[in-house]
Amino acid sequence: MAEAKTLHKPIGLLAELTHRCPLGCPYCSNPLALEPRADELDTATWMRVFKEAAALGVLQVHLSGGEPGARRDLPEITASAREAGLYTNLITSGVGITTRTIRDLWEAGLDHVQISIQDSDAVSADRIAGYRGAFARKCALAAEVKRLGLPLTVNLVAHRANIERIGAMVELALELKASRIEIAHVQYYGWAVKNRAQLMPTADQVRRAATEVEELRQRHHGKIVIDAVVPDYHARFPKPCVGGWGRRSLNVTPSGKVLPCHAAEVIPGLEFWNVRDHSLAEIWTASPAFNAFRGTDFLPEPCASCERREIDFGGCRCQAFLITGDARATDPVCHFSPAHREIEALAAVQQDRPYDYRRM
Amino acid sequence: MTGLGDIASDARPRLPRGVRLTHSEAHGGWVLLAPERIFKADAIAHEILRRCTGQASLAEIVDDLAKTFNAPRERISADVTALLRGLADKQLLEL
Question: Which of A136, A130, A16, A140 minimizes the C-alpha distance to A71?
């Protein structure tokens, strides 16, 4: 049984239900221009979006934000996604989901919960989140999730302040009875670009972390799944971002804009369509933003003649734009890119100054 | 207690909450949906997984498949054990 990587219909939908969030994580993947509550889609529109998504081929919906618990209608939204036939994954900070809400979500048919935890050390975790008491509330929600019998993933975003405690994070995830831990190194988009030098681990830390993850996987085989997202500033090849532009997934913002990936708005000149004006199928097939970088024909050298072209699709368009100013360029994470030197230079800059926290 | 591979023959395999076998019209087939993972279930995997309800034992599942598909029990047993062990290691199946 092979993992379904070659389906050409979208399989995943990231539903950013709101940009509101009590936490201030300095690497937040939301855009710098956060969408206000007044612009958020209503319950009925999300219900329609989920039906259209399922008809289009989407199998899993990730109910995210911001903090999705900031929406009072989260149980109704979740139930409608399940009724549409979608697998429902709640991605939460753990702050703002009450015992009552998680029970309502369980009744609504929620399939899986992912809770972000900033560090295994409570003081450090709260400092990274910019919210005192967050760590304790996250652990309490995790316990409630397991009491209800829901599967739990713990998500750790790794960076210089916590990268030395990956082993302790896995221990914590085991204590919380998580069946999976995701160790995702910071990706430098949005707020993380503002805090790049404060977050950037050293090359030595990255190497040690990679070795440690391999050891942890062997030690805990069969007890917990450890998924690791590579720190791409320290890599030689780029990631196949969102599995290829307009190929596997889509992202709906709180106000209904449909993006090929959550960071896509950073690229100037792209025209995004909104679910208030178009069906999801129209947007997937015909919106200018989705067709801008589909396939690999647009790629210049060194990608054009590279055998990895169909593996990584030239990497991430947003990163290409952020570093080179050209969204069509080879992702400069690739060591074949003429701009790779710039990534190496940025990866070598570490500064210990206060975070620029994400705030509305 | 005789085991099949490293799974006890009286184990009653079951998909836990958060792992669902479902038919997708859009993709024209069965898929196993799990946390951050999607597996395409071919006809054989589907026949195995739909029997993993927590009711039938591993031995009963293998017997049933061998009878239904008129196939050698040893081969069925090897296929079933390999699939179930792989899923259990990923926390996607309770034994």
Answer: A16
Q: What is the mean pLDDT of residues A198-210?
A: 97
- Decide if A132 contacts A165 (C-beta within 8 A): no
Number of residues assigned to chain B? 95
For residue A289, what are its two tokens?
Answer: 């933003």
- To the nearest whole number, what is the mean pLDDT of chain B? 91
In this structure, the strands spanning A60-64 and A225-229 are unpaired
Residue holding tokens 């995004």?
A272
Nearest residue to B25 (alpha-carbon basis) of A288, A185, A54: A54
As given in the structure block, the two tokens for residue A102 are: 């998680």
CB-based contact A87:B33 (threshold 8 Å): yes
* DSSP assigned state of A276: T
What confidence tens digit (pLDDT) does each residue in A169-187 have?
999 999 999 999 999 999 9
Alpha-carbon dihedral sign for residues A301, A302, A307, A312: negative
The values of phi and psi at residue A243, to 5°, are 65, 20
Residue B6: the pLDDT is: 80
Where do the DSSP E strands lie in A123-179? Answer: 152-158
Is residue A285 within 8 A of residue A279, CB to CB? The reply is no
Secondary structure letter of residue B79 according to DSSP: H
Q: How far apart are CA A17 and CA A41, in angstroms?
A: 8
What is the spatial distance between Cα A55 and Cα A68, in angstroms, rounded to a whole number? 24
Chain A residues within 8 angstroms (CB to CB) of chain B:
1-4, 7, 9, 11, 54-57, 59-60, 85, 87, 89, 111-112, 114, 149-151, 153, 179-180, 182, 221-222, 224-225, 227
Query: Does B28 touch chain A if contact means CB atoms closer than 8 Å?
Result: no
* Structure tokens given for A297: 């024909």
3 state DSSP class of A14: strand
